[in-house]
Write a structure and sequence with these properties.
31% of the residues lie in helices and 21% in strands. By secondary structure, the chain is an alpha/beta fold. The strands form 4 sheets. The protein has a 6-stranded parallel beta sheet, sandwiched between helices. Strands 7-6-8-9-12 form a 5-stranded parallel beta sheet, sandwiched between helices. Strands 2-3 form a two-stranded antiparallel ribbon.
Length: 262
């Protein structure tokens, strides 16, 4: 039976593990997005990725999914938004990705060495190009000198073709532990992420429904904002995980994949 979205003003679709895995669309994702577009339903694709919306648009196009950058919001974009808002014309160190580099270009100054003044360090996963061991050492020094640690997201791990990889949260915790500092996180499930997304959509949180595969980042993040939630079992969460979570963390609906909604 087709899901009725008419009760909501916006549908929020998680990407990795919900819409796609690596460069392959997951079952039902292309058809669901086409249905939302055909019905003129407002929607946004969201991700704890460190990349830019423009890069996500190109990636989705390769899977047969056509969206615009304003329909994408990533944790990387949220981190850059946070830094720019907190530090006008910020002096920042990139410990994340090319996407973060793109998004802050022209909006601040990039710090390159640990001898410079630095307002904030934007931290992604350690497998990224801008997060090699030498740059981690520079970030640690900057943090000990007072730079704010801005974790792109608090994800402990994420899946890749090689298996599980260390996430942005894991690297952020390691560095802040070493520096005796307190981090700020900007991706899901943080309220700052969903609040900014809803502001951009001009839709109150309670009028949104989120579809995602992660009980912590997606479902709990949305529920604490008053959103309706649907869990898909195509990514991180498994049926047994539902037995161990508190009632207020449970999704409103559980599906096998997005085909169940169309």
């Amino acid at each position: 039976m087709s899901q009725d979205f008419s009760r909501y003003e916006a549908v929020l679709l998680d990407l990795d593990g919900t819409v796609y895995f690596e460069d392959h669309p997951l079952p039902g994702s292309v058809d669901l997005i086409k249905r939302l577009q055909a019905e003129n339903t407002k929607f946004a694709c969201i991700s704890n990725s460190t990349t830019s919306p423009q890069r996500v648009v190109k990636r989705l196009a390769g899977m047969g999914i056509t969206v615009t950058p304003d329909q994408i919001y990533t944790a990387g974009a949220a981190a850059v938004d946070y830094v720019v808002k907190r530090f006008p014309n910020p002096r920042a160190f990139n410990l994340a990705t090319e996407g973060v580099q793109d998004m802050l270009e022209g909006r601040g100054h990039w710090v390159q060495t640990d001898s410079e003044k630095c307002d904030a360090i934007i931290i992604g996963a350690p497998a990224n190009r801008y997060a090699d061991f030498e740059r981690q050492r520079i970030a640690l020094s900057l943090m000990r000198n007072g730079a704010l640690a801005v974790g792109v997201c608090a994800d402990r791990i994420y899946p890749s073709p090689r298996g599980w990889e260390f996430g942005s949260g894991a690297l952020t915790l390691m560095l802040t532990y070493a520096a005796n500092a307190k981090p700020v996180y900007c991706g899901k499930p943080e309220k700052v992420f969903f609040a900014e997304l809803c502001r951009r959509l001009a839709v109150p949180p309670e009028r949104c429904i989120l579809i995602g595969d992660n009980l912590e980042a997606d479902i709990w993040g949305a529920k604490q904002m008053g959103m309706a939630t649907i869990l898909t079992l195509t990514g991180v969460a498994r049926p047994d995980d539902l037995k161990a979570i508190a009632a207020d963390h449970r999704p409103d609906q559980v599906i096998q994949d997005l085909r169940d909604l169309i």
